[in-house]
Design a protein that fits this description.
The structure holds 2 protein chains of 2 kinds. Chain A is an alpha/beta fold. Chain A has helices at about 15-25, 35-45, 60-70, 90-95, 110-125; strands at about 5-10, 30-35, 50-55, 80-85, 100-105. Classes of the chains: A alpha/beta, B mainly alpha.
Chain lengths: ~120, ~675
């Protein structure tokens, strides 16, 4: 059985590593990218099942990533955003552009797993 | 010089290059270390004792390798930084494991060492690390810094002890001797808010602290945790010399709806600054009742600050909605009003009737027919009732079509009774008994003090005793209202300057009166047993929306004033007295005009009144004579002979009944 692919865009190595550890432990295939350029390059080659992205990222913010995926790639793959600053305007903007879910830091890894599973199931249905 | 400056420039660029590279190198090294340590930390964090044998072996190997690395201070520093960064981004169980790992690796020992540093920033960093990693044992070390003279360390220590243990807030409030800034208070409250299973202590214990900031902070915490058991202490703090505490106590009063503090708030109002005054008015507007309107009116008139005055007006409107309406810069609607056309005269007439309060008069078609023919012929003087012809042709009912209303026509002063007023009086005396009765009933609703001369004229000339009595009642009410207005507006009376409504024993009873009937009874009782202390309260009630309460209040006030005047008779100087002022009807004023009763009857009344007479300097006798008695005695034919007859105790209600039966 093929593992489901998750693209994790997180510039903090430690947090990225921790989330990767959790997601892999849960059975996902995780591609960790630390900036927007890497994310774009990855998306041009391969399409994951879900994207988990930090809003505050170098070169390409999480909101720009949503815009890129929805408008440039014309894809409706589930996108889950995470951010330390729960700025209402940012969140609303992200949802308007087509983000599927939002999670604010500090992140509880079990909660992240539940949310990832949920957005994936929604897309499957 | 050129060589020197070139050399200095070179050195400068070299230094910039060196430091830039150094920072970049350190960052890269940290990044590399992070990448190296990330899987190790993950392994440590999520190690499960029930893991497979291979996993257990890996875990033990990692432990051995990291133990060697931990001997190097640089490694320890990097590891501490990584864990501190990570704990900000993760929550729940992961965060707890992270704290546990920090202790397990003995990284907290480095933080303890930092506490001993002489440099404030190092000490502060040590406190921060221990707080973030929730090292409970560090509480004892950190609390020593609560009264440190170095502000940053002190503030960090405050946050630490509040964060580390539940009793931290108690210790902090007990021992701190320094000011607590507003920002620090917010941060402390934020820490308390995020504490799990936090049971707040009773903060009222710190309302007696000598540290004003502790009192202030305690008040805010009381408000935040809704500790209304501190009500008494909060009310006391309204008297505090510190304006900040006073203002905070007032907000608590508003928050906890401590209505018994309103009196105190009013008493400190004039000694407070503008911010506190606004706070007080805000509280009164939220908790006040109609009894507080007098005070607000006083503020509105006397306060110099525009902001405070505005707030007082807002408070009045909050308590009694629409009491004060816009009056300035309004268009003159009388000029804008279109003149009625012949076509819709009947509509205008009906509207006018409604406006002036004649809607209570039910004019039926049959009644219209009953109007004598001679009335119908006289177009301009038809008093009441509308003929069919009138509906077609305007100029009926007190010349409404001429743009003057009934009230203006009928209510000029006696001094300047014009031709129209005389016409009106002629109209009145041409009416039948039923029409007159209806007219008087309507007049009771719309009359004002300007109508007093007209009413006096009717009393003089009306032959029917019942109607005369009804008119007298209206006159009496008008006089009492006039007196009430004089008390509130004109002179600085006792009721406003010296006695507050709260001084009345009925004040509290009125506040807690459960229904309108109870209030009615209380107001009547005030009239029966009250004295001058009740007058401000009754003045307040005169502004009540409920008309029955207004009437009862006016009646009770009149009773009290009558009692007071009997105790100390009033000497009226007719020349100097304003017509609008209240003055009792005297035998002079009645006898100078045409008496309704014959002189013999009046003489008998005068004999009764001798004990209540007063002699003025010019020798004329001013005798107080209740007109009700004139009418009653005249109608009944009763003549009292003895002075000791307690006529003042006569129940006038009986007279009402008598007249009802008679009609």
């Amino acid at each position: 059985m093929n593992k489901r692919k998750i693209l994790l865009a997180e510039d903090d190595e430690m947090l990225g590593s921790l989330l990767t550890y959790w997601l892999e432990k849960e059975g996902y295939d995780v591609a960790l990218k630390s900036n927007g350029q890497e994310v774009k390059k990855y998306l041009e080659i391969e399409m994951p099942d879900t994207i988990i992205s930090d809003i505050m990222m170098p070169y390409l913010s999480g909101i720009e990533l949503v815009d890129f995926v929805r408008n440039d790639l014309k894809s409706n793959l589930p996108i889950l955003l995470i951010s330390a600053a729960s700025n209402d305007e940012n969140i609303l903007n992200a949802f308007e552009l087509g983000a599927n879910d939002f999670l604010s830091k500090p992140i509880s890894p079990p909660e992240l797993l539940v949310r990832v599973a949920r957005v994936m199931n929604q897309m499957t249905v | 010089m050129t060589v020197l400056f070139t050399a200095l420039g070179g050195i400068y660029f070299l230094l910039v290059f060196f430091f830039r590279n150094s920072i970049s190198f350190n960052r890269n090294r940290l990044s590399r270390k992070r990448k190296e340590l990330a899987p190790i930390i993950n392994n440590f964090l999520f190690h499960n004792e029930n893991a497979t044998v291979e996993e257990q072996k890996d875990y033990i190997g990692l432990k051995i390798s990291i133990r060697d690395s931990l001997k190097k201070p640089v490694f320890r520093k990097i590891l501490s930084e990584i864990l501190l960064d990570l704990q900000k981004d993760v929550g729940g169980e992961t965060k707890k494991r992270l704290h546990h790992l920090y202790l397990e690796l003995d990284l907290h020992v480095d933080a303890y060492k930092k506490l001993k540093s002489w440099r404030w920033q190092i000490v502060s960093q040590g406190i921060l690390e221990l707080t973030q990693m929730q090292v409970d044992d560090s509480y004892g070390f950190i609390k020593k810094f609560i009264n440190d003279k170095r502000g940053i360390i002190r503030k960090q220590a405050e946050l630490a002890i509040v964060s580390l243990r539940t009793e931290g807030i108690d210790y902090f409030l007990d021992t701190t001797r320094y000011a607590i800034s507003e920002w620090q208070q917010l941060k402390l409250m934020e820490v308390l808010r995020h504490r799990e299973h936090f049971r707040p202590p009773y903060f009222k214990s710190w309302l007696i602290s000598r540290n004003h900031d502790v009192v202030l902070f305690a008040l805010r915490l009381i408000k935040y945790y809704n500790q209304s058991d501190a009500a008494v202490a909060i009310i006391e703090l309204v008297k505090h010399k510190d304006e900040r505490i006073r203002a905070e106590a007032i907000t608590c009063i508003k928050e906890f709806c401590l209505i018994n503090a309103l009196h105190l708030l009013k008493s400190i109002f004039w000694k407070s600054n503008i911010a506190t005054k606004i706070e007080i008015l805000d509280t009164i507007s939220a908790l006040g009742t109609e009894f507080d309107v007098n005070f607000l009116q006083k503020v509105k008139h006397k306060e110099a600050s525009f902001l405070v005055r505005n707030k007082a007006i807002a408070a009045i409107n909050a308590i009694l909605p629409n009491t004060i309406l816009p009056v300035h810069n309004l268009l003159d609607t009388t000029k804008l009003q279109e003149k009625p056309t012949a076509k819709d005269d009947h509509i205008d007439i009906a509207r006018e009737i409604y406006d002036i309060g004649l809607k209570s008069i039910e004019v039926t078609f049959d009644e219209i027919k009953e109007i004598p023919e001679d009335h119908q012929k006289n177009d301009t003087n038809l008093p009441i009732g509308l003929t069919e012809a009138k509906l077609e042709k305007p100029s009926i009912l007190f010349e409404i079509d001429n743009g003057t209303d009934f009230k203006n026509q009928s209510t000029k002063g006696a001094k300047d009774l014009g031709a129209k007023d005389m016409d009106f009086q002629n109209i009145y005396f041409e009416m039948g008994l039923t029409e007159k009765a209806k007219f008087i009933e309507t007049f009771a609703h719309i009359s004002s003090e300007e109508d007093i001369p007209t009413l006096e004229h009717i009393i003089e000339h009306e032959e029917d005793a019942e109607l005369k009595f009804q008119v007298f009642k209206i006159l009496k009410e008008l006089r009492s209202e006039t007196l009430a207005e004089n008390h509130t507006d004109k002179e600085t009376s006792i009721s406003e300057t010296q006695i507050d409504p709260e001084h009345s024993i009925f004040h509290a009873l009125m506040m807690y009166a459960s229904d309108i009937d109870a209030k009615h009874i209380l107001i009547k009782e005030m009239g029966e047993v009250g004295d001058e202390k009740e007058i401000p309260l009754l003045d307040g009630l005169l502004l009540n929306n409920n008309k029955t309460i207004q009437k009862l209040a006016a009646k009770s006030k009149n009773q009290i004033l009558q009692r007071a005047s009997q105790a100390k008779p009033m000497v009226i100087d007719d020349e100097n007295t304003d017509r609008t002022d209240f003055r009792p009807i005297t035998i002079d004023t009645v006898t100078q005009q045409k008496p309704a009763l014959d002189e013999k009857q009046f003489t008998s009344q005068v004999s009764l009144e001798q004990t209540h007479s007063d002699h003025t300097e010019d020798g004329t006798t001013t005798v107080l004579l209740p007109l009700e008695l004139c009418f009653l005695y005249g109608e009944l034919g009763v003549r009292s002979q003895k002075q000791e007859h307690p006529f003042l105790e006569i129940d006038f209600e009986l007279a009402d009944e008598f007249y009802k039966n008679q009609s």
